[in-house]
Design goal:
alpha+beta, two-stranded parallel ribbon, 3 helices, about 45% helix, about 15% strand
Length: about 70
Amino acid sequence: MFARVRFKTSDAAEQCHILERVASLIDAGELRGTRTGTLAPMHAANPREAHRRLESGSTIGKLVLAGW
């Protein structure tokens, strides 16, 4: 996603336009992320729970560990 900026291509400014468009789509509810769960606060049990959910094979989307 950030290849233009990283490699300093001649059209690097286009990245700004792409991110602005994505932000507007998210704000309008036309695009949404893949996060389906958040485990917080961070303590020993939550990484274990996240691992258990992922190993179950039934998790769709992304799990977020929050509260570092």
